[in-house]
Amino acid sequence: MTTWIDAWSRTDGDTRARALFAERFGAEPAGAWSAPGRVNLIGEHTDYNGGLCLPFALPHRTYVAVTPVDSDRIRLISAQEEGVREVDLAAVAPGTVEGWPSYVAGVAWALRQAGHPVRGFDIAVDSCVPYGSGLSSSAALECAVAVALEDLFGLGLAGTDEGRTTLTGICVRAENEIAGANTGGMDQAVSLRGQAGHALELDCLDDSVRQVPFDLTGHDLALLVIDTKAEHSHAGGEYAARRAECERAAELLGVGTLREIGLDGLGDALADLARLTGPEGDGSAVAEVLVRRVRHVVTEIGRVQEFVELLDDGRVDEVGAAMDASHLSLRDDYQVSCRELDLAVDAARSAGALGARMTGGGFGGSAIALVRADEVERVAEAVAAAFDDAGVRAPAFLVATPEGPAA
Ligand code: GLA
Asked: What three-state secondary structure class fits 347?
């Protein structure tokens, strides 16, 4: 038997958040807002290298009900825990707020840092974005808070793509500085700027985007998401280590970002790296690691371009090879996969998926598989059976379609 992670309807989600607020704070909220989690089709670990990626917004969203207050006090409640948390907005600084409230308080703090007149508020949070599954539940929370606060405090930012780009930067600051996770900007960008029916081609060099029509149903295809339920405790440290390696490689090569290398320059760049870090440099172990990291980033950016060209040509059923190649590169060169992700990808492919790869940061979380629409159940069952045979915890599934942004 397979487990499916359902998305709530927008009305249902709003109602849940409002009801939670009313029940625990004893008053109706001023309003309710929500923002989606995401999957990334391709372009992994490219965002913080000035690269390209291609995420889309999920129907699974985080809902918040909020009322502003005339002080700096933030009171937070969540459907997932008992009790009320409290944060003094005036005292928020890096390292001062623990756990999930840091994503909420971080957004208010970053808005204030940018000069926006934000005060305290009461907030109730509920979500159908599975937590810890690599589908960006944290970005969904940040972005829901961002659109709520910008609306309540009349900041006039959510009405334009330019304003939403500004909000993206606010949410990234919240995550990097207050929540302490040094992630890139992909998750927040798609949660705030994704469009229904489209994948978001995001150019992280200048934050420009292109909405790429992504119609799987019209091609009798579906995107199956496999939540492996694997959580890796060192994920944060490993992510930061990868990012540092990329920065080191860029510095050694004398480029601003690894994006600048390009597929044409890859051979020379790898030879340079080997020379610069070789026997006279840091030693060959370092060379080998940096070569692998750069090779992944540069080829992955190339795969995003290839994927997008196929979509533009209406050849959706041909993107599988790029997905497969992306997974191998993430597994062998970037070294961010894990046993459960490899198992999910291999099992989905053996069951007939056109392509499959891990999605998101890695070390656990989710994989995606492009499958024929009438084979979704069969592939999911085959993956669940492979997990059972391997004696690992049962995965959960959802079928992803591109839906609208934070609102
Ligand atoms: C996480 C980060 C993103 C991105 C991906 C990997 O989701 O939050 O910024 O780096 O990993 O592509």
From this structure: helix
